[in-house]
Amino acid sequence: MKLMKITEVKAVYPNYRNVAPSWRTHFWQIVVRVETDQGIVGVGYGGGGVAGVEVVNKHFRELLLGKEIATTQDIKEAWDHLYSASLPYGRKGIAIMALSGVDLALWDLLGKGENCPVYELIGDRKKDSVRSYATGTDIEWYTELGFTAHKFPHRWVSDKDISTAIATADKARNLLGQKALIMIDTYMSWSFDITLEMSKSLKEFDIYWFEDVINPDALVAQAELRNLVKPTLIAGGEHEFTEYGYQEIARTKALDLWQPDITWCGGLTSGIRITEMGNDLNIPVVPHRGGEVWGLHLIVSSTCDDLAEVLPGTKGGNKDDLWIGEPYPLNGYISPTDGPGFGVTINEALLP
């Protein structure tokens, strides 16, 4: 066990314009770096854009300087301290997105200090590889790459969107086969009635889940929808924060499947707590963007479902080179690297 004292904490907002049209451009992701007296540096990924950077650099930093990190308990105590300190303006949103980046940097730091991957810090590795599903629009390419699960985006604009949803679902089912998983992400653009209509119109395509169908605060309405669209699941939770937010989801029974985003919900510490809660309630947990290292280490070492989201983009499109050493799916399955920490390094050329 190596005792490391924090000497510096800094968040930056990467130059995403250099990797356009990266999907990450639209997620306001920030990079957090934690330095120590041992020369070991942890790097994490959070959210909140320039506002998140200010939260880290102007508030969280002063609370972390001089803190000692040697165990996972130290990380959890740091999380609780930062959460409590940010209560007057936090609890959800940008403050927790910023906290996520700090938390992930601390887990990366501890893994490097112990010379082991983060999944070993969480617990015994339970999965060698994870089935991955491709999110995007290039279904032909995803089929070539060997994916057997696919999620396509479908925001509601007008009544004609029912026919386009049918056409896309039909194409996906024909290309991927009858045993493939097909999901739809509406990004909060459907209504209660539209969800019911879509459920009826898409019944023959055996949709596994509808994701983020309506306003995420409409928990009672989502709970009602669950019983009306079965066997399709109502999934969501990427826009919820911490185990405290998920306690309300659990209380109202709003969702069939939980999707915490590890870089937004409060980091790995929060993700572990949410996953444990879901396991106790027998609710499947599939982290949002779980194919990224931040969620992947949790999936292979916990009771999360054997399913990880990846965003391959389109064939021949630009790649996001912010993180060096990221794992990539092979024949529809993905595994984290065995390097210390999260096993990736930051591309310094993309940092301001």
TrEMBL record:
**What is the protein's given name?**
Mandelate racemase/muconate lactonizing enzyme C-terminal domain-containing protein
A Pfam family annotated for this chain is MR_MLE_N
Q: Which GO biological process categories is it annotated with?
A: amino acid catabolic process; carbohydrate catabolic process
Transmembrane intervals: none
Native source species: marine metagenome
UniProt xrefs under InterPro entries: Enolase-like_C_sf (IPR036849), Enolase-like_N (IPR029017), Enolase_C-like (IPR029065), Mandel_Rmase/mucon_lact_enz_CS (IPR018110), Mandelate_racemase_N_dom (IPR013341), RHMD-like (IPR046945)
Q: Could you tell me one molecular function GO term of this UniProt entry?
A: hydro-lyase activity
- Which keywords are on file for this protein? Magnesium, Metal-binding
Keyword field contains Metal-binding: yes
Residue span, Enolase C-terminal domain: 142-349
Names of the cofactor(s): Mg(2+)
